[in-house]
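Just scan this pair:

***
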Amino acid sequence: MEKSRKQKESFFSKYGCYLLGFFIPLAIMIVLYMLKNIYPFGDEMYLRSDCYHQYAPFMQEFYNKLHNGGSLLYSWEIGTGSNFTALYAYYLASPLNWLVYFAPKGHITEVISLFILLKTALCGLTFTIYISNHHKTKNVSMAAFAIFYALSSYMAAYSWNIMWLDLMVLLPIVILGLENLVLKGKCMLYIISLGICIFSNYYIAIMICIYCVIYFFVLLYVHRRRYSGHFTIVSMFKFFYSSILAGGLGMAMVLPEYYSLLTTASSDLEVPTSVMNYFSMLEMVSRSLICVECSIFDPHNPNLYCTVLVFLLIPIYCISRKVNYKEKIAKIAVVLFFLLSFNTNVLNFVWHGFHYPNSLPARQSFIYIFLVLTMCYEGWTYVGEVNKKQLFAILAGVFFLFIMLEQMFVGDDYPFYIVYASFGFILVYTIIFRTYKKNLRNNGWVVYLFFIICIAESAINMDVTGLGTTSRSAYLEDNHNITSLLDHVKEKENDKFYRTEKVIHRTKNDAAWNNYKGVSVFSSSASGGLTQFYKRMGFENSFNAYSFYGYTPLTASILDVKYMLSDKDVPPNSSFELYSQIEDELYVFKNKHALPLGFMVGEKFIDNFDINMDNPFYVQNEFVSAATDTEEIFHVLHSNTTSQGVARTRVDESCYVYIYLNNRTMERAT
């Protein structure tokens, strides 16, 4: 019995901090899933923004390919046909995504929810591993800071962005590998972990690579005097070839994606011509408080919160005499550089791969959070050395800072309770620090109390600011009917090539979600040439998306859209007739004039067809004329405009009328 008890104690002393770092964030997230009624605890699901519109449909397409034996090089179900290798590299390259193969059919949304849980827990685990190896110790308090990392505002804002989370998981391992490279001469961990980063998501990996360069020189600056004279040269050589090898491991994904992105509409560089800042430094500091609303669609505001402890522990880190002064100077300089990067257009441009992000700002802020938390943990280890006078001087400084933040920022978008709750937690932590100082010989219970308060702070912030949900049943309600109708059509078509579209999309990637050949897409790898073609032909389009909205009988036929799905029994236009239906819920219409995938045109078509006209109906008339040498098929209806800006057109016969607007000022058309 005594031996068994000692074995259990030995096991927990060795691995307890890792288990806590993994399971506490996992448990918090599961409880939040329950509170927010996320399936299977209710009818909600956690699909937000691009996860709703892109990641879930693309994951479904990947699932279909794994189960049906489809090509991993090309997909007809994304856009008019897409380079699936490039799309996989951008959205799906996480090694964990292959686990989707084992998911039950129809449960992709639950797979994504599980991935979020797993990757959140892994963030806590890898942070604990880093702290344990960096400080050569194992204790419960390490897991507290791991929770702060795993449940930071970056996770609250972007946890739905599952393709980025792998990099957040791997960052602590990459930095641990870099430290091993410089301080021990061991390269393997750095090469493998950075290589997996680049393979998993080259875009966020760019930011990790930038930080690796910065942190490498920090390590050289801090440690060069401890080693022989050739330390710098040897370290630089190892860092260079190890980074090249890591990049080589990821090239299989980077090269297809790179060449694909060169063909997109967003490939042109918008190089900043002047230096500008986005906001004041105080405003940026205000985003480090608890329960600050996450910045997702704002163009610049970074998500910086990890814990309000930063306001106590960073000053303690700075005044501690046990912290290497060179390390202190270097890391504070890097923190300031990060803050400057969040606030300056030129540095923001560089960090994001020489590109301005389209919403989802400060995508590198998880690296800043990692650095700050490592400094905070070191400050925590020296709390016992801080005297009463120093601690209360820090508290007074925080108090006056918070008064300034309240006076400057509290309003409709920044509730007062943010400041009060943050200072309340700081007071609790201050009391814990004083108690810890007074009980240095018997402070185990203080550490556990500290751990519990840390859990409470992280859970409250994640509950208030993260995990926005949407209806699961609404997302899935028509799936069965769509599948039934598509199977019926497929059986009748006998494996012929044809395309299908929906009158009303849920997303532009419905074809990938419902497994049919469509002509719409929303993807960062969307072809720029096709986007321009869609624009000229009158379809809905943007720099990374195009859709079937805006179609005419002609353009539907050109794109071989043979079937249309609709929840109404009204034909989309004169070319379509009812083909099949499921009760009064879903209808499929067949295009009587659909052209095949390839069709003949006149030999002078290329010379005669001018697509560069502003009005899409002129372009379509031009297409018909150049292809068939016939008269125009669309005729202009002239209108009379009143002094109130109302245009009236008289139609003397039954026909379809199309309206083209080249601005957004029109209120309605009747």
In short: Residues 2-35 form the longest helix (34 residues). The longest strand covers residues 576-582. The mean pLDDT is 91.
